[in-house]
Specification:
Elements: E1 6-11, E2 14-19, H1 30-44, E3 51-56, E4 61-63, H2 76-83, H3 88-93, E5 99-103, E6 106-108, H4 110-117, E7 120-124, E8 128-130, H5 144-152, H6 154-163, E9 167-168, H7 169-175, E10 180-182, H8 184-199, H9 203-218, H10 221-235, H11 239-249
Parallel strand pairs: 2-3, 3-5, 4-6, 5-7, 6-8, 7-10
Antiparallel strand pairs: 1-2, 8-9
Helix pairs in contact: 4-5, 5-6, 9-10
This protein binds coenzyme A.
């Protein structure tokens, strides 16, 4: 079933999810958040898809934040009720396959938060990132204060939260907020190259690696180290582990099946 505000395109083992409200700079209204939940549910169960790339339609924006029009007149109880339900950004973070944010323009507020819910962020040199909520008299509510602090540290995250300043892709790179920056005309090819390289790995090992890295922010060091051993050992129950080891010994490329 096609979704109203999202396009899904499959290119081999990589699915590209495009937030498609370019006239509104891909601002996330409630319907689009529900579409994200639906899209990621579909893609989780699709064995052909091994990596997801998420981006924004049009030249200008990745996502310019939550749809501000939906804030007007909302009560605290209504807003809280909505945000305590199934959360689109958490579904991206918990998605069992790698997700790459291809940041083609403005990534503000909820756009920056969605990018930070992804596993890797690749930005166009013309992208601008920030958490401008403070200018509306509110704060980030989609994980911004938590995920950014873990990603770039308290001091830098605090400055961005308190000023609402937008930063350039190069500044975001220097902060570790994005992994790579490319010229706009190279962005898609470079992102797909990375996505395809990751998609060649064992889906079982990718899921374990993602879960284990995520645990670093959720557990203390001893719990994280113990859990890592369990997830490492779990890889030994996969056929992919035998294939990977055999391929190395036989000096050939491994053909991972995800089993
Ligand atoms: N929510 C709802 N609509 C938004 C939006 C948002 N977060 N961001 C942009 N839009 C809409 C604009 O209202 C405008 O719609 P219109 O043509 O019907 O008037 C359209 O998208 C284009 O945006 P515009 O502001 O004209 O583009 P710009 O190039 O002048 O400015 C931004 C770009 C990103 C600087 C500006 O749109 C902006 O500040 N957006 C809000 C960012 C924000 O505060 N996000 C956090 C929300 S919690």
């Amino acid at each position: 079933m096609p979704l109203e505000n999202i396009l899904i395109e499959k290119r081999g083992r990589v699915a590209i999810v495009t937030i498609n409200r370019p006239d509104k700079l891909n601002a996330l209204n409630i319907a689009t958040r529900n579409d994200i939940l639906e899209a990621f549910e579909q893609l989780a169960g699709d064995d052909e898809v091994r990596v997801v790339v998420i981006t924004g339609a049009g030249e200008k924006a990745f996502i310019a934040g939550a749809d501000i029009n939906e804030f007007a007149g909302k009560t605290a109880i209504e807003q809280r009720g909505m945000m305590k339900g199934r959360r689109a950004f958490d579904s991206v973070e918990d998605f069992p396959k790698p997700v790459i944010a291809m940041i083609n323009g403005f990534a503000l507020g909820g756009g920056c938060e969605l990018a930070m819910s992804c596993d890797i962020r690749i930005a166009s040199s013309k992208a601008k990132l920030g958490q401008p909520e403070i200018k509306l008299g509110i704060i980030p509510g989609g994980g911004g204060t938590q995920r950014m602090t873990r990603l770039i540290g308290e001091g830098k995250a605090m400055e961005l939260m308190l000023t609402g300043d937008m930063i350039s892709a190069e500044e975001a790179l220097a902060l570790g907020l994005v992994n790579h920056v490319f010229q706009p005309e190279e962005l898609e090819a470079k992102t797909m190259e990375l996505a395809n390289r990751i998609a060649d790995m064992s889906p079982v090992a990718l899921a374990m690696a993602k879960a284990s890295v995520k645990n670093a922010a959720r557990m203390n060091l001893r719990e994280g180290l113990d859990s890592e051993v369990d997830l490492f050992a779990l890889c030994f129950s996969s056929e992919d582990k035998e294939e990977g080891v055999r391929a190395f010994i036989e000096k050939r490329k491994a053909d991972f099946k995800g089993k």
